């Protein structure tokens, strides 16, 4: 049966004219090219789909998203736009590695305007520290914590931490002088060089009006920093986490905050990577 089929195919092919054979080959080539193009297109679309999911465009994340004026009344717009009470001293994010966005900076610094005591996990370049000092009351104090480049060997990675989160944390622990250094605002800043897992929060219980968590994004560190921040925040005070960007771009932040949201009223500020929490009064 199979031999008969082959013989039929051979005779049919021999009966083709040269022109028929030529067009048959061209048609086959076109079909193959189209198949390859479709496969490449589908793969490209899949990559874009994965990217969009990281940006929360195609699927909802765990933490509820709200506009900033739903979290804090001070951001409620007036007839002509934002209240002048939200005006801040500002330096843009252009050219700054790992910085908060301009919108995130506006939110953070507006809240800082009424904060007497501020704590920051993760100094990095000190630009955010500088802006917190610049926009907070003259009598305000900012405590900021980072790992000294001389102490990076003390960094304690846990088994569940993603390697890229650990790598990023160590790459950012390279500064001894900061954006606020040698400025008139330096007196407002207390710089702590210590691994946040070894930081003792007990002297700071219920002290801070605003806590900003933007240190190591490794899951064990986000858990550690969050636990300590919840002990340190004042009743009615605010905790802000940076880089809630999805399971691929910042998995340690994403996973930890999703877990916390099961027992705490966390909100994701629309248009930002900030997650916010206000401690009960």
From TrEMBL:
Pfam families: Methyltransf_24. One of its GO terms (molecular function) is methyltransferase activity. InterPro entries: SAM-dependent_MTases_sf. Keywords: Membrane, Methyltransferase, Transferase, Transmembrane, Transmembrane helix. The keyword Transcription does not apply. One of its GO terms (biological process) is methylation. The chain crosses the membrane at residues 23-42. This is Class I SAM-dependent methyltransferase. It comes from Candidatus Finniella inopinata.
